[in-house]
């Protein structure tokens, strides 16, 4: 289940704060770039039957995806 499907921005931010305060390990699987941007120390890309570590932040990954799909000029892709 996607943890942010029914959350508003304030709730997502609160979830991010709780995750950051958590002292244990966590694997987060999400499509919510806002949450990922706030909490991810490492981003793993699962694609083509392989898992690789993304060497940049989630914003750079989002830009790469937009470029790959020919959406480089879409509003919101900063």
TrEMBL record:
The keyword Repeat applies. The keyword Repeat applies. One of its GO terms (molecular function) is ATP binding. Gene3D superfamilies: P-loop containing nucleotide triphosphate hydrolases. Keywords: Repeat. This is ABC transporter domain-containing protein.
């Amino acid at each position: 289940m996607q943890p942010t499907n029914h959350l508003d921005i304030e709730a997502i931010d609160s979830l991010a704060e709780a995750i950051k305060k958590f002292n244990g390990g966590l694997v987060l699987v999400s499509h919510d770039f806002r949450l990922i941007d706030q909490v991810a120390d490492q981003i793993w890309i699962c694609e083509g039957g392989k898992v690789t570590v993304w060497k940049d932040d989630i914003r750079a990954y989002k830009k790469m995806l937009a470029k790959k799909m020919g959406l480089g000029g879409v509003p919101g892709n900063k």
